[in-house]
Write a structure and sequence with these properties.
The complex is a heterodimer of chains A (about 325) and B (about 525). By secondary structure, chain A is an alpha/beta fold. Chain A is about 40% helix and about 15% strand. The mean pLDDT of chain A is about 85. In chain B, helix 8 crosses helix 10. Classes of the chains: A alpha/beta (about 325), B mainly alpha (about 525).
Chain lengths: ~325, ~525
């Protein structure tokens, strides 16, 4: 017992001596569903300019939304940052956010923010197809071609619980109708041949290695892969761009201020910074997304925003129709 | 009084269950039918299958290694013991992560496979049920090893010798004497293993194997539907309760102590032949369950170190993890003691009830426990919210059964006569507890502490939700970094996790050897 006691005391001593990583007062708390790596650069600059410190509390977007809802007034969150407009819209509907000042949100395209100013979009991502350039995929021009029988066992999609996947399907439901989407989902299920991927990066890997011919991903994953492997045989297909076709599915990462935040002034400053030109560049560029602010150029590697036609589905619909989408996915029995 | 204290403990442990029941009651019949139609039967089948296969896997790996190590003297035996126990330091999701990386085309195993078999035979696909069973067996067999080895070490040779004198062959001795004597230890260990399988999320989600728990997570994620998640959780709880009752049945009413504690087993010295065989067997197990993962973690940690990616915050995360584990393990062991005592002294339906209820927290998925605890704290003790107390509560509730099982297994092996002697000599019940019982089950208490400590520092889902702002632990960092495929950043955290568990394991092994 003696040596255990000594061990225990010395361990406690060591632990107390180690630096603590904990929150302090006066710092902005951001519930973030976006990867730390892509938020830290803009936070660093913000703190440099304004002196306001920001703490990121990361977890999955939906879990954080759940937490905000349950916490109610006792929440310590000042801001909620999510990679999915659906979550932001839901948060707005549930009354979890306070409205942002009009002059702050005006710089962002109206289709990329909430009508009641409860949240504002910061950067956009396109749902595109990635194909292996060594395989003949010339017939693949639309997302709906993923259900083509020629692609049996050759497509790579994420599992149906993935937020971006759900958002994409919502857009298709709105733009092309429920029945067409249902038929498409059945075809995709067939073509996926029982195997889905838990991450988009794995989808891109599978396509690059030749194990799959076509995959459905958010555009920036392709460029991330090309960063590591510049010679990967990958081809980007921006789907549904022809006349009369629905356009590419669009989703937006955004932010809202928590209704019960005690530091609204500082929080508004943060959002202002994020929608400023400099902030937009830092925020969107680091992940090669499209800045939501009009007039800020996106990274040179990705197709320019004005060359892509987006589906005319409002971001609000992503939240409102989400449950209907999930119902459809479950009805079809998507893995 | 014991029953009163136990009752209070169990009530606290049952908070998430109450939350689950309350939420499920708000689910309409239509929704229940809807849930049942969509995927439930498949999920049930998958989960039960996985539980069975992993139980068998862990049994085979754990029992064989325990037997070899307990019954034979050979060079490097201490090292072998360590190697069999070290896999506990690696969380299941890290195992899954490492093996998906190893088995990919550019991974070490993938390359080795292609070198051996060329392009004709494709690399085994780990994204299947068998893959998940493989991972979970590697991650869980140590529990069986530990408890089986302790039991084998403590069994008196007289029963086996008596059997041999009666003419039984080695195999018969094993089957008819050793195995039944091992039953309580094996049953307790398998209970822990199966509970881990039922509640596992990290590994199965990475391998995309649709179990019940995964589905519950998806309900909460996709729909933000806490009620459906609660309903499914209720089914999960029912399943595990059934399993626990069955397990108890195998252990029931048997007394496993032997009166002559004079002679311990003398392990036979292994012959040269046997030595080779033993090390081949143990070496293979150790390779896949610890050495390969360790090498992978070291390799990527080194990359991170050279790329200068490890900052001062990293040590802060380590400290947070270790401190949390320390406090949570201590509280849990103390809180579990009344339950274990009550059940081993008073075998009534009430004590069995208490025992099973205290296990609920372990089976319920992390987010469900977290939500239950948050709701309780926000409504009953709002001042506590935001600090570490909420997280501690959830962790204690979640890992209570580990502490209860270990302490109870130790209590079961105590001869009642020593305690009775204490009472006869005039000690009051509390004094008797402090001076007689507790010192004798010290080994069990230490094991309980270590098991809870290890599980707490590996815990992910509840910590993710309940942690105070700015209090990130190592698993949280692993999750955050690996969600964007940042291997180099996840590996150092995994390495720290492994190093952090080493002292705990050392303490446990010491306590074992002291006997």
């Amino acid at each position: 017992m003696n040596i255990l006691k000594k061990l225990g005391i010395s361990l406690l001593g060591v632990l107390m001596a180690m630096p603590a990583v904990q929150a302090a007062d006066g710092e902005l708390v951001v519930y973030s569903g976006r990867s730390d790596k892509f938020v830290k650069p803009v936070i660093k600059e913000f703190t440099k300019e304004t002196g306001i410190k920001v703490i990121l509390h990361s977890a999955k977007s939906t879990a954080l939304l759940n937490k905000l809802k349950v916490e109610g007034e006792r929440t310590q969150a000042d801001l909620y940052l999510s990679n999915d407009a659906g979550n932001l819209q839901l948060g707005g509907q549930m009354g979890l956010f306070q409205p942002l000042p009009q002059n702050v949100v005006d710089v962002i395209d109206p289709t990329l923010r909430a009508a009641d100013n409860s949240w504002v979009g910061l950067s956009a991502r396109a749902r595109v197809l990635v194909a292996n350039s060594e395989v003949d995929t010339s017939f693949v021009k639309s997302v709906f071609d993923l259900a083509d029988p020629r692609l049996q066992g050759r497509i790579a999609v994420t599992h149906s619980g993935n937020g971006s996947f759900i958002a994409g399907v919502t857009v298709y439901m709105e733009a092309a109708g429920v029945e067409k989407t249902r038929e498409w989902l059945k075809g995709v299920k067939e073509n996926a041949a029982g195997r889905t991927f838990d991450k988009h990066s794995k989808v891109v890997k599978a396509v690059a290695s030749g194990k799959r011919a076509v995959g459905l991903v958010n555009h920036y994953y392709i460029y991330r892969h090309l960063d590591e492997k510049p010679n990967a045989p990958l081809k980007v297909i921006v789907p549904d761009q022809g006349d009369g076709e629905m356009g590419v599915a669009w989703n937006v990462a955004g932010i809202g201020i928590s209704k019960y935040s005690q530091k609204s002034a500082a929080a508004v400053k943060f959002v202002e910074y994020l929608v400023s030109e400099k902030g937009q560049q830092l925020f969107a560029e680091v992940n090669r997304e499209y800045p939501a602010r009009k007039g800020v150029a996106s990274s040179a590697e990705i197709p320019a925003a004005n060359t892509i036609r987006a589906a005319s589905v409002s971001m609000e619909a992503l939240g409102k129709q989400r449950n209907a989408t999930i119902d459809l996915l479950e009805a079809v029995g998507m893995p | 009084m014991l029953s009163g204290v136990t009752g209070v403990v169990v009530l606290m442990a049952a908070i998430p269950l109450l939350f689950v029941i309350y939420s499920s009651l708000q689910l309409s019949a239509v929704r229940w039918v809807g849930l049942w139609d969509t995927r439930l039967p498949d999920l049930l089948a998958n989960t039960v299958w996985l539980g069975l296969v992993v139980a068998v896997g862990c049994l085979v790996l754990g029992l064989s290694s325990a037997w070899l190590i307990a019954r034979r003297q050979f060079a490097g035996r201490t090292l072998a013991i360590w190697l069999m126990v070290l896999p506990l330091a690696i969380p299941t999701y890290v195992f899954a992560y490492i093996y998906t990386s190893l088995l990919s085309d550019e991974g070490w195993l993938g390359l080795a496979w292609q070198a051996l078999f060329g392009d004709s035979v494709s690399i085994p696909d780990i994204y299947t049920g068998w893959g998940a069973a493989f991972i979970l067996s590697l991650a869980g067999f140590s529990y069986v090893f530990l408890l089986a080895r302790t039991s084998l070490l403590q069994s008196s040779p007289s029963m086996e010798e008596a059997a041999r004198m009666q003419g039984a062959t080695s195999l018969e001795v094993f089957w008819r004497v050793q195995l039944p004597l091992l039953r309580p230890a094996l049953a307790a260990a398998l209970a822990v293993v199966v509970l881990h399988v039922l509640s596992d999320f990290g590994a199965v989600s990475m391998l995309q194997y649709q179990t019940f728990t995964l589905s519950i997570y998806m309900q909460m994620e996709g729909r933000m539907d806490n009620q459906a998640a609660a309903g499914l959780s209720l089914v999960l709880v029912a399943m595990s309760l059934m399993f626990l009752v069955l397990e108890r049945f195998f252990r029931n009413r048997q007394r496993y102590f032997s009166h002559s504690r004079a002679r311990k087993f003398q392990a036979k010295k292994a012959s040269g032949h046997e030595l080779l065989l033993i090390w081949a067997c143990l070496g293979l197990i150790a390779l896949f369950s610890f050495l390969l993962p360790l090498m992978w973690v070291l390799h990527w940690s080194w990359q991170a170190w050279s790329a200068d990616l490890i900052g001062t915050e990293f040590w802060g995360y380590t400290r947070n993890s270790l401190l949390l584990g320390f406090i949570a393990a201590t509280v849990t062991v103390v809180v579990a003691l009344p339950v274990a005592l009550y059940h081993s002294r008073v075998r009534s339906w009430l004590s069995t009830c208490y025992l099973h209820l205290s296990s609920i927290g372990f089976v319920l998925p992390g987010p469900v426990v977290a939500l239950g605890v948050i709701t309780f704290v926000l409504t009953q003790m709002p001042l506590l919210y935001g600090g570490i107390a909420v997280l501690l509560m959830a962790l204690v509730v979640r890992f209570l059964p580990l502490a209860v099982q270990s302490q109870e297994a130790a209590l079961q092996q105590l001869t009642p006569s020593i305690e009775q002697a204490g009472r006869v000599l005039g000690a009051g019940p509390l004094e008797n507890l402090w001076r007689v019982t507790l010192p004798m089950i010290r080994g069990g208490m230490v094991t309980a502490w270590v098991l809870v400590f290890i599980d707490v520092i590996k815990e992910l889902p509840a910590t993710l939700i309940l942690r105070p702002i700015g209090y990130d632990t190592l698993p949280v960092r692993i999750w955050i970094e690996s969600s964007e495929e940042m291997l180099e950043l996840a590996a150092p955290a995994a390495l720290m996790l492994i190093l952090g568990t080493l002292p705990a394991l050392w303490i446990m092994m010491r306590a074992e050897r002291a006997r």
